[in-house]
Structures are given as structure tokens and as C-alpha cells.
Amino acid sequence: MFKASKEAIYRYIVEDLSLDINSVAGAIELFLGGATVPFVARYRKERTGGLNETQLRNIQEKMLYYAELEKRKETVLESINIQGRLTDGIRKKVIECREKHALEDLYLPFKPKRQTKASIAVEKGLSALAETIIRQMPCSSGKMDILESFVDTDKGVNSASEALSGALDIVTEAVVDDPSLRGWLRERMAREGLIATRVLDDWKGKKTKYEMYYNFREPLKDAAAHRLLAVRRGANERIISWNIEYDRTITSGHFEGVYVKDPSHPFAEELKSALRKALIRMSVSIEFEMFDKRLEQAEEEAIKVFSKNLENLLLEPPAGHRVIMGVDPGFVTGCKIAVIDDTGKFIKNTTVFPNAPQRERSLAARAMLPMIREYGVNIIAVGNGTASRETMDFIKEMIKAGGLEGSVRAVLVSEAGASVYSASEAAVREFPELDVTVRGAISIARRLQDLLAELVKIDPKSIGVGQYQHDVNQSKLKRSLDGAVETCVNYVGVELNTASKELLSYVSGIGPGLAENIVTYRQNKGAFRSRRQLLEIPMLGEKAFEQCAGFLRIRSSEDPLDNSAIHPESYHVVERISTDLSVDIVKLIGNKDLISRIRPEKYVTEEVGMPTLQDIIKELYKPGLDPRREFANVEFRPDITDLDDLKTDMKLFGKVTNVTAFGAFVDIGVHQDGLIHISRLAKKFIKDPHEVISVGERVRVRILSVDTELKRIELERLS
Fold first, then answer.
1. Sign of torsion over alpha carbons 48, 53, 57, 62
2. Class of 324-449 per CATH?
3. pLDDT tens string 465-521
4. Lowest mean pLDDT: which of 70-79, 136-145, 416-425?
5. Does domain 643-718 have CATH number 1.10.3880.10?
6. Chain segment 1-53, per-residue pLDDT in tens
7. Residue 229: CA atoms inside 13 Å, Cβ hemisphere, count?
8. What is the DSSP string of 263-318?
9. How far is CA 655 from CA 227, 439, 667, 680, in A?
10. Fewer Cβ in 10 A, N or C end of the chain?
């Protein structure tokens, strides 16, 4: 089906996304050939005109939508044809449809229905009477005579009133199914409709998070995504109700204008009555349809926000190859301590009780300080959950008392999703003998070492950087979040000899099965010495190698280019360059003087274009460089630990934990994030908070208000 409609789909996507036809065609052909978005974006720029990953993923989404639409068109045409009602005009209208709801409008009069009052009336032989009424056909006799002529007790029409009632049922259904009227009403509702909400009786006078929607009106077309999603959630929780308001008088007049051509016709009033009834039925269905359509758009916005936040989080600067002590704080059950080496390998664990009720601070210090010194711990990563501030205070005192200031520092690390990992199959497989809390401490340490490598082990929805993530389409959410993780993993690159199965599974062209095979091969055969060794992996053929090789790094490879983002398919280009410069490749890499003498136009061929050559030259300067920012820490004020400590106009530093359509949430060290509303994020007007702020960013804020009952903190961003 896709091939038969390929040209039309290309045209639709070009018009929808305002892209070049050749770029779209090139991208789609590559996707159909099994190429991934990261591979196409990085290594096939010549084929797509340099489209970025966002543009390529949009093309994929549109591809899926239009392929499904074309398949639905086939079903619709086949159904109408079987009924013997398919005309050239209907076929043309169906083929030209570009929106699913418009296609369903066209199909509605032909769609097989359950038995209705109208279908029963048709069976009773009242279609001709309905035609007379709806088309206002000339009447050669009086109204009652016409109605009496349709009385037929054998068919169940026992009186003139029954005949009229049945005919009007047919008329009403015909008007409800009228695609042109449905389209007109839909467009009017989209343009002028107001989403209106009210509080239900049981909640009147009560304080809830939906208070702003107790009596709320807003143009449907302008309603912000987060407000629509909040309205739906509030309605589902039976706190508020909603409807779409519009001018029904104008709408009723339009309906009459379409059908009532002769106001003096004997059945004119009956026709008007049927039109009013049809309008009510049509309005109800289109209200839900329009709300659902705007909700679908709202969900897409929420999913984009979640994906963008996830990308920013995953690309947070790593502490890198350092020995780290992870601390999972606690009160009664104590603090779980775990040390990992500079590659993330677990070394040792213990449990200490520095906090209430035990407050065994001296014993805790005597247990932790020898571990810090023996293993050369550089950083102590403290989970930001329960007892985190108390534990952080103790650790800072311990570092000072132990004479380790300047050589060891403590950092708060987000615990979001750590408990999910601790009890996961991956954690059990890696540490079957350890308690879940110890696994949590290991995860906290690894998050600081490389957040991306650790967070790929858990479901992105568990990370907590989304907006209404449980309310949106879960399959679309998963597809988008998986795409975000895939983008980050391939953007950073993966060390082949140390990467986990979970991390490898996100590498372009690999997936869970091949990732498992790679890890098994590594365990049995030892470290990889070259990228070409990947072809020895069971089930990893040339196509998979093409897709993944450029994103995998081997620090100790036999070929220095294996530790770069240069694809093996382009190694011959670098070899030719080094030959022309009369230098070994090892000496060429990182040599700015030699690299500046390269003339890329000299190496352009049909297979290798200028974009690829520019990427090769850029990579030669700093091969395998981690593109993430330098690691930096956020220090919270030691005297601010609880909501009650906050005062209006207080100025603090914090870390952005979540960005939504309406603002940014910031951790200021009181176990409750504050909100910077979008209006207070920048001096200029902005539509999207992501324009000026991102997850993981360090910000300075001012306290505007604190609501201890609802646990709400209102913040303002300071420059």
C-alpha cells in the first residue's frame, strides 16, 4: 500500500513540514532500507540535505500517519464498493482526504450501523416520505393525505403520526451524517468555541488543585496544553465537568439555510424540528471529537516537553572516570554506603547510622574514612531523598574533621527512579547477592559518574521529568522517549568494552538481542581490539555493523580511528589524506597544523560529499571527545532545609529538575521543588520555557510565596 501511494505521501510530508522533496525522499528511502535516525542524521547528510534528528523523526511520524491513512482509505473504498454505492465522485473525495477525521466524515453515511430508529423506518418503507421532507419536493396533495398514503399496518406503520415520526428519524440521521455540515460545525467550533468548566456540587467550597477550573472559560483554539490535560484529569477525578460553548443560534440558522429552501413547504416546520434534533446530536459528538483532537495536540506537546527534558537530563555533565562513594540516606534503617571504581565497578559496601534515632556519627565516620582513603574516593554522591540534608551535613563535618577538605567533596544526586533500578531484573542480574538498598547506593554513585549510562537501565517514565506522563498516549510516549534516549546515547557515543547491555541496546542498529550477544562475546573472548571484530558477533551482519560502528568507541584499539566518530566506511578517506600529507594517521590525529592543511574538496566523490568530509576533519581535531558540558555542582544553603525555613524575598541557588509548558521546577534543598512560572523566567515574552532554561541547569531564584498547606513554592528567576 505504501509503495502505491509513495509519491502522494512524499508530497504530503513536504507540504506539512516545509521540507525539500529530495531530502524527504532520501530520508524515507533510507528508513525503508532499515537505517536509523541517528545513523541517517550523522552519516547520510548528503542524501537528506543535512536534515537534523528532529526533522527526521518528524518525517518518520508523518510516514506512519499517512501510511495508516492510506490503509484506512483502502478499507473505506472496499466497504462502499461492496455496498454497490461507490461512485467516481466518492472515490475522488476519499483518495484526496489528508485527515483521518475528514475521511471518517465521508464514510459515516456508508458505515454499517447497528439497528437505529432511522434504519427501522427505512425497513418500513418510509424513505420516500423522508426524501419529500428533506428535499422539500413538490406535494400534489395535502400533508395528511401524503402521510396517510404511507400507513401500512403490514409493515408496522399504523398511523399518519407514526409515518411522520419514522420519516423524521431518517431525516435526522441523514443530517447528522452530512459530511459538509459536520465539517462546517467542526471548523466553527474550532475557531470560536470556548472550553468551559465548572466545579461539581460535591466539591463546591473545597480547596483542591483544580480551583482555577471551578468556573473557567477559554477559547478552545488558544487553550494551553497543560490546562487541557488538567481539565481532563479533573473531570476524570469527578471534581469538575467541561463542555464546549459556541453560538447555537447562528449554527441553527446555518443548518436551516442549507436545507430549508421553501419556508412555506407543508413539511417545513417538521424539517426544522428534525434539524434542531440533528444539531443537538451532531454537537455532542463533535464536542467530544474536538476536545479529543485538542487533547491529542496537548498530549503531543506534553510528550515533546518530556522528551526534551529527558534529553537535557541525560546530557548532564558526567563526573567522569573517578572513584565515587554512593550514599543512600536514611534514618532508622541507616545510610547504605557503596564505593565504585573509576569504571563503575562495585568495590565495597557498608551501612552506617549517623542520623536520628541512633546518631552514631563517630562510628559512621570511623567506618567511612578508611574506605575513602583506601580506595582513593574523589567524590561522595548523596541521594536527595529522605534524610539527605541531615546526611549531607554529617558528611561535610566528617570531611572537615578527617582533613580531607580540597581532596574530597560531597554532591547531592537525584534519586528519581533509583528504587526502580534496584529491584529491576538488570540490577538482580548484576548484583544477585546484594540488598536492594545497596544496589540503590551503587546506582546513586554511578549516576554521578555518568548519568546517561545509568539512567538507560530504567523506564524513562520513572525519572520524573515529564508533565502528565501517565495521562498521555503511552505508545506514543514510549516511542518518543526511546527516541530521546537513542539520540543522546548515539550523540555521546558508547565505549564498547565497558558499556552495559542496556546502554548498548540503544546504539543505532543494535537493540536488546545484539546487545546481549555483544556482552556475552566480551565476557568470553575479552576486550574488543577493533570495530571489525563486531562482525564476529552472532546475528550481527554487515547492515547492523553499518548502523552501529560509528557510534562505538574502543580506547585501546589497534586502529586509532576506532576511538572516534569517523565511520569505518570512511577510513579510506583518512588514509588517503594521511598519505597525501606524508604522515602516519596517529600523528595526524589532533595535529592542528596538519589538519588545517587538508583541502576537503580534493576528496569529494560520488559516495563521499562535503558534509561527510567536514565531519571527518572536525573529528580529527579531537577524536572521541565527550560533547557534554564540564561537570559542576550546586551547593544548597545549609540553614535552609524545610518549607518552614523559607521566607518571602529570600534569594537562593537551585537546580532545575523539570521544565513544563507553564514553567520550570527547581530543587532548592527543602524536599519540595519550587515553580518559576513561564512569565517569570525571562525579561522578554517567551512561548516555550525550553528557550531559556533546561533540566539540570543551576539557577539563582527569589522566593515569591510559600503555601505550606498545598506545599507550593512560587519562585522568580534572577539574572
1. negative
2. alpha beta
3. 777 788 888 888 899 999 999 999 999 999 999 999 999 999 999 999 999 999 999
4. 416-425
5. no
6. 344 467 888 999 999 999 999 999 999 999 999 999 999 999 999 999 999 99
7. 22
8. TTSTTHHHHHHHHHHHHHHHHHHHHHHHHHHHHHHHHHHHHHHHHHHHHHHHTSPP
9. 25, 25, 5, 16
10. C
Count of Cβ atoms closer than 10 Å to residue 311 Cβ: 20
**Which residues, in sequence order, are bridge partners of residue 712?**
707
Q: What angle do CA 319, 320, 325 make, to 5 degrees?
A: 65
Domain positions in the chain = 6-110, 117-193+246-305, 324-449, 475-564, 566-623, 643-718
Backbone angles phi, psi at 410, to 5 degrees: -110, 140
pTM of the predicted structure, to 2 decimals? 0.82
Q: Which residues pair with 157 in a beta bridge?
A: 152
Handedness of CA 338, 485, 534, 555 (dihedral sign): negative
Architecture of domain 566-623 in this structure? Orthogonal Bundle (1.10)
Read off the amino acid at residue 589.
I
CATH topology agreement for domains 475-564 and 566-623: yes
* Nearest 10 degrees: Cα torsion 541, 543, 545, 551: -150
Cell numbers found for residue 414: 537525584
3-class secondary structure, 717: strand
How far the first Cα of the chain sits from its last, in Å, is 56
Q: Which residue has the higher pLDDT, 708 or 57?
A: 57
Record the cell numbers describing residue 306, joined without a space.
Answer: 518530556
Whether residue 273 is predicted with pLDDT greater than 80 in this model: the reply is: yes
Residue in the structure block whose three cell numbers are 477559554: 218
CB-CB neighbours of 600 under 10 Å? 17
Domain 117-193+246-305 maps to which CATH number in 3.30.200.20, 3.30.420.40, 1.10.3500.10, 3.50.50.60? 1.10.3500.10
Residues in Cβ contact with 684 at an 8 Å cutoff, skipping those fewer than 6 apart: none
Contacts of 374 (CB under 8 A, 6+ apart): none
Amino acid (1-letter code) at residue 103: L
Q: What is the pLDDT of residue 471?
A: 86
For the domain bounded by 475-564, which CATH number is listed?
1.10.150.310
- Over residues 659-696, the pLDDT tens digits come to 988 899 999 988 889 999 999 998 888 888 988 999 88
Q: Angle CA(188)–CA(194)–CA(196) in degrees, nearest 5?
A: 145
Cα–Cα distance list, 474 to 295, 296, 305 (Å): 14, 12, 15
Sign of CA dihedral 426, 430, 432, 435: negative
The pLDDT, as a whole number, for residue 426 is 87
pLDDT of residue 21: 94
Beta bridge partners of 382: 327, 412
Q: Residue 293: is its pLDDT beyond 60?
A: yes
* Residue located via cell numbers 395528511: 144
Four-way CATH pick for 6-110: 2.40.50.140, 3.50.50.60, 1.10.472.10, 1.10.10.650: 1.10.10.650
Q: In 463-550, which ranges are continuous DSSP H helix?
A: 474-492, 501-505, 511-525, 542-548
